[in-house]
Structure prediction request, 254 residues.
Amino acid sequence: MTPIYPDLSGASVFVTGGGSGIGAALTEGFLRQGARVAFCQRRDGAAFCDRMAQETGNRPLFLPCDITHLAALRGALDQAAAAHGPITVLVNNAANDQRHKTLETDEAFFDWSIAINLKAYFFAAQAVIPAMQAAGGGAIINFSSISYMMGNAGYPVYTAANSAINGLTRSLAREFGPDRIRVNALAPGWVLTQKQKDLWVTPEGLAAHLARQCLPDALEPEDMVGGCLFLSSSASKAMTGQALVIDGGVVVTG
Prediction:
Protein backbone atom coordinates (compact mmCIF):
# COMPACT_ATOMS: atom_id res chain seq x y z
CA MET A 1 0.00 0.00 0.00
CA THR A 2 3.06 2.30 0.14
CA PRO A 3 3.10 4.91 -2.65
CA ILE A 4 5.96 4.82 -5.14
CA TYR A 5 8.16 7.92 -5.37
CA PRO A 6 9.99 7.76 -8.71
CA ASP A 7 12.69 10.22 -7.63
CA LEU A 8 13.81 7.81 -4.88
CA SER A 9 14.65 5.11 -7.42
CA GLY A 10 18.44 5.10 -7.65
CA ALA A 11 18.84 7.70 -4.92
CA SER A 12 21.80 7.32 -2.56
CA VAL A 13 20.28 6.93 0.92
CA PHE A 14 22.01 6.55 4.28
CA VAL A 15 20.17 5.39 7.43
CA THR A 16 21.83 5.36 10.83
CA GLY A 17 20.74 2.38 12.89
CA GLY A 18 19.17 0.96 9.76
CA GLY A 19 19.28 -2.75 10.53
CA SER A 20 16.88 -3.12 13.44
CA GLY A 21 13.69 -1.65 14.87
CA ILE A 22 12.34 1.40 13.08
CA GLY A 23 15.58 1.67 11.11
CA ALA A 24 15.14 -1.75 9.54
CA ALA A 25 11.64 -0.85 8.39
CA LEU A 26 13.00 2.37 6.89
CA THR A 27 15.80 0.56 5.08
CA GLU A 28 13.31 -1.92 3.62
CA GLY A 29 11.00 0.91 2.60
CA PHE A 30 13.76 2.67 0.67
CA LEU A 31 14.93 -0.59 -0.90
CA ARG A 32 11.42 -1.22 -2.21
CA GLN A 33 11.54 2.23 -3.82
CA GLY A 34 14.64 1.14 -5.75
CA ALA A 35 17.01 3.33 -3.76
CA ARG A 36 20.65 2.48 -3.14
CA VAL A 37 20.66 2.17 0.63
CA ALA A 38 23.55 2.06 3.07
CA PHE A 39 23.12 1.78 6.80
CA CYS A 40 25.33 1.65 9.85
CA GLN A 41 24.98 0.13 13.30
CA ARG A 42 27.11 -1.61 15.89
CA ARG A 43 25.56 -5.08 15.68
CA ASP A 44 26.16 -7.33 12.69
CA GLY A 45 23.80 -6.58 9.82
CA ALA A 46 24.80 -9.33 7.39
CA ALA A 47 21.78 -11.56 8.00
CA PHE A 48 19.43 -8.59 7.59
CA CYS A 49 21.13 -7.69 4.29
CA ASP A 50 20.71 -11.26 3.07
CA ARG A 51 17.01 -11.21 3.95
CA MET A 52 16.47 -7.83 2.28
CA ALA A 53 18.21 -8.99 -0.88
CA GLN A 54 15.97 -12.05 -1.01
CA GLU A 55 12.72 -10.24 -0.19
CA THR A 56 13.20 -7.00 -2.14
CA GLY A 57 15.72 -7.89 -4.83
CA ASN A 58 17.79 -4.93 -3.67
CA ARG A 59 20.69 -5.49 -1.26
CA PRO A 60 21.62 -2.75 1.21
CA LEU A 61 25.20 -1.94 2.15
CA PHE A 62 25.98 -2.60 5.81
CA LEU A 63 28.75 -0.54 7.37
CA PRO A 64 29.61 -1.45 10.99
CA CYS A 65 29.94 1.71 13.00
CA ASP A 66 29.46 3.19 16.46
CA ILE A 67 27.97 6.60 15.68
CA THR A 68 29.44 8.09 18.86
CA HIS A 69 32.87 7.71 17.23
CA LEU A 70 32.76 10.56 14.76
CA ALA A 71 35.71 9.41 12.68
CA ALA A 72 34.00 6.04 12.18
CA LEU A 73 30.72 7.74 11.33
CA ARG A 74 32.37 9.97 8.75
CA GLY A 75 34.19 6.95 7.35
CA ALA A 76 30.94 5.04 6.94
CA LEU A 77 29.33 7.99 5.17
CA ASP A 78 32.35 8.23 2.85
CA GLN A 79 32.18 4.51 2.08
CA ALA A 80 28.49 4.76 1.29
CA ALA A 81 29.07 7.68 -1.08
CA ALA A 82 31.90 5.80 -2.80
CA ALA A 83 29.65 2.78 -3.32
CA HIS A 84 26.36 4.47 -4.21
CA GLY A 85 27.21 8.00 -5.26
CA PRO A 86 26.87 11.20 -3.23
CA ILE A 87 24.32 10.83 -0.44
CA THR A 88 21.22 12.87 -1.19
CA VAL A 89 18.98 11.41 1.54
CA LEU A 90 20.24 11.17 5.12
CA VAL A 91 18.05 9.62 7.80
CA ASN A 92 19.34 10.25 11.31
CA ASN A 93 17.45 7.45 13.01
CA ALA A 94 19.79 5.81 15.52
CA ALA A 95 18.99 6.67 19.13
CA ASN A 96 19.01 5.21 22.62
CA ASP A 97 16.24 5.88 25.13
CA GLN A 98 17.86 4.11 28.06
CA ARG A 99 15.96 4.94 31.21
CA HIS A 100 17.69 7.01 33.87
CA LYS A 101 16.97 9.18 36.89
CA THR A 102 18.10 12.77 37.18
CA LEU A 103 19.68 12.44 40.62
CA GLU A 104 21.54 9.28 39.59
CA THR A 105 22.89 10.54 36.24
CA ASP A 106 26.61 11.27 36.08
CA GLU A 107 28.56 13.28 33.52
CA ALA A 108 29.74 10.21 31.61
CA PHE A 109 26.18 9.00 31.03
CA PHE A 110 25.03 12.49 30.07
CA ASP A 111 27.82 12.83 27.48
CA TRP A 112 27.14 9.33 26.13
CA SER A 113 23.42 9.98 25.72
CA ILE A 114 23.96 13.32 23.99
CA ALA A 115 26.59 11.77 21.73
CA ILE A 116 24.11 9.19 20.46
CA ASN A 117 20.92 11.21 20.45
CA LEU A 118 22.12 14.62 19.20
CA LYS A 119 25.83 15.01 18.47
CA ALA A 120 25.88 12.27 15.83
CA TYR A 121 22.92 13.91 14.09
CA PHE A 122 24.76 17.19 13.75
CA PHE A 123 27.99 15.72 12.44
CA ALA A 124 26.30 13.28 10.05
CA ALA A 125 24.46 16.23 8.52
CA GLN A 126 27.66 18.27 8.41
CA ALA A 127 29.37 15.44 6.52
CA VAL A 128 26.76 15.05 3.77
CA ILE A 129 25.71 18.65 3.20
CA PRO A 130 28.62 19.60 0.88
CA ALA A 131 27.70 16.80 -1.55
CA MET A 132 24.05 17.82 -1.36
CA GLN A 133 25.04 21.39 -2.18
CA ALA A 134 26.99 20.15 -5.19
CA ALA A 135 24.03 17.99 -6.29
CA GLY A 136 21.63 20.92 -6.13
CA GLY A 137 19.65 19.65 -3.16
CA GLY A 138 18.91 16.84 -0.78
CA ALA A 139 16.82 15.75 2.17
CA ILE A 140 17.76 15.20 5.81
CA ILE A 141 15.25 13.55 8.14
CA ASN A 142 16.04 13.74 11.86
CA PHE A 143 14.11 11.25 13.99
CA SER A 144 12.97 12.67 17.29
CA SER A 145 10.16 11.45 19.59
CA ILE A 146 6.98 12.69 21.16
CA SER A 147 8.50 11.91 24.57
CA TYR A 148 9.59 15.48 25.20
CA MET A 149 6.19 16.82 24.12
CA MET A 150 4.46 14.59 26.66
CA GLY A 151 6.65 15.77 29.52
CA ASN A 152 7.54 12.20 30.42
CA ALA A 153 9.86 11.47 33.32
CA GLY A 154 12.38 8.63 33.33
CA TYR A 155 14.83 9.74 30.64
CA PRO A 156 15.52 13.49 30.93
CA VAL A 157 18.74 13.57 28.87
CA TYR A 158 17.01 11.70 26.05
CA THR A 159 14.02 14.06 26.02
CA ALA A 160 16.38 17.05 26.13
CA ALA A 161 18.10 15.71 23.01
CA ASN A 162 14.73 15.11 21.33
CA SER A 163 13.77 18.72 21.91
CA ALA A 164 17.16 19.93 20.68
CA ILE A 165 16.72 17.93 17.46
CA ASN A 166 13.84 20.24 16.54
CA GLY A 167 16.02 23.30 17.07
CA LEU A 168 18.81 21.75 15.02
CA THR A 169 16.36 20.81 12.28
CA ARG A 170 14.99 24.35 12.01
CA SER A 171 18.41 25.99 11.99
CA LEU A 172 19.79 23.66 9.33
CA ALA A 173 16.66 24.16 7.25
CA ARG A 174 17.14 27.92 7.37
CA GLU A 175 20.88 27.81 6.69
CA PHE A 176 20.79 25.41 3.77
CA GLY A 177 17.40 26.14 2.27
CA PRO A 178 19.04 28.33 -0.39
CA ASP A 179 20.86 25.16 -1.53
CA ARG A 180 17.50 23.33 -1.79
CA ILE A 181 18.48 21.07 1.06
CA ARG A 182 15.36 20.26 3.05
CA VAL A 183 15.67 19.34 6.72
CA ASN A 184 12.69 17.96 8.62
CA ALA A 185 12.11 16.07 11.85
CA LEU A 186 9.93 13.02 12.30
CA ALA A 187 8.57 12.34 15.79
CA PRO A 188 7.20 8.84 16.38
CA GLY A 189 4.95 7.88 19.23
CA TRP A 190 5.48 4.66 21.17
CA VAL A 191 6.52 2.26 18.43
CA LEU A 192 6.52 -1.37 19.53
CA THR A 193 9.94 -2.46 18.34
CA GLN A 194 11.35 -5.70 19.69
CA LYS A 195 13.58 -3.68 22.03
CA GLN A 196 10.59 -1.86 23.50
CA LYS A 197 8.75 -5.14 23.97
CA ASP A 198 11.74 -6.76 25.64
CA LEU A 199 12.52 -3.91 28.02
CA TRP A 200 9.56 -1.67 28.72
CA VAL A 201 6.20 -2.81 27.35
CA THR A 202 3.78 -4.09 29.97
CA PRO A 203 0.09 -4.82 29.43
CA GLU A 204 -0.87 -2.06 31.84
CA GLY A 205 1.53 0.49 30.40
CA LEU A 206 0.51 -0.24 26.82
CA ALA A 207 -3.18 -0.05 27.65
CA ALA A 208 -2.68 3.31 29.34
CA HIS A 209 -0.79 4.66 26.33
CA LEU A 210 -3.31 3.40 23.80
CA ALA A 211 -6.01 5.14 25.82
CA ARG A 212 -4.17 8.42 25.11
CA GLN A 213 -4.11 7.81 21.34
CA CYS A 214 -6.95 8.92 19.10
CA LEU A 215 -6.45 5.77 17.03
CA PRO A 216 -6.85 2.42 18.79
CA ASP A 217 -3.98 0.48 17.22
CA ALA A 218 -0.47 0.10 18.62
CA LEU A 219 2.25 1.56 16.42
CA GLU A 220 4.62 -0.73 14.52
CA PRO A 221 7.95 0.19 12.87
CA GLU A 222 6.31 -0.02 9.44
CA ASP A 223 4.02 2.87 10.41
CA MET A 224 7.00 5.25 10.25
CA VAL A 225 7.98 4.37 6.69
CA GLY A 226 5.40 6.32 4.71
CA GLY A 227 6.15 9.61 6.44
CA CYS A 228 9.89 9.17 6.05
CA LEU A 229 9.60 8.35 2.34
CA PHE A 230 7.39 11.40 1.83
CA LEU A 231 9.88 13.70 3.55
CA SER A 232 12.70 12.20 1.48
CA SER A 233 11.01 12.63 -1.88
CA SER A 234 10.20 15.58 -4.09
CA ALA A 235 6.56 15.11 -3.10
CA SER A 236 7.49 17.26 -0.09
CA LYS A 237 9.75 19.65 -2.02
CA ALA A 238 8.16 22.74 -0.42
CA MET A 239 8.36 21.36 3.13
CA THR A 240 11.32 22.08 5.39
CA GLY A 241 12.01 22.97 9.00
CA GLN A 242 8.96 21.02 10.12
CA ALA A 243 8.27 18.26 12.64
CA LEU A 244 6.01 15.50 11.38
CA VAL A 245 4.35 13.61 14.23
CA ILE A 246 3.27 10.00 13.69
CA ASP A 247 1.92 8.85 17.03
CA GLY A 248 -1.65 7.66 16.60
CA GLY A 249 -2.93 10.99 17.87
CA VAL A 250 -1.37 11.44 21.32
CA VAL A 251 0.01 14.96 21.04
CA VAL A 252 -1.45 17.92 19.16
CA THR A 253 0.74 20.28 17.14
CA GLY A 254 -0.01 23.60 15.49
